[in-house]
Amino acid sequence: MNPLFIRNTWVKQKQERHRWAALTATDYPTGRLLDSMGLDFILVGDSLGMVALGYPDTTEVTLEMMVHHTAAVARGVRHTFLVADLPKGSYETEESALRSATALQAVGAQAVKLEGGCDYCSVIHALSSHGIPVLAHLGLLPQRVKEEGPYRQRGKTPEEAQHISADTIAVQEVGVFGTVLEMVIPSLAMKLTQQLRIPTIGIGSGKNCDGQILVLSDLAGFSPWFRPKFAPSYGNVAGEIQGAAKRFIKEVREKTDDSPSHQSSDSR
Ligand code: KIV
Question: pTM of the entire structure?
Answer without folding.
Answer: 0.94
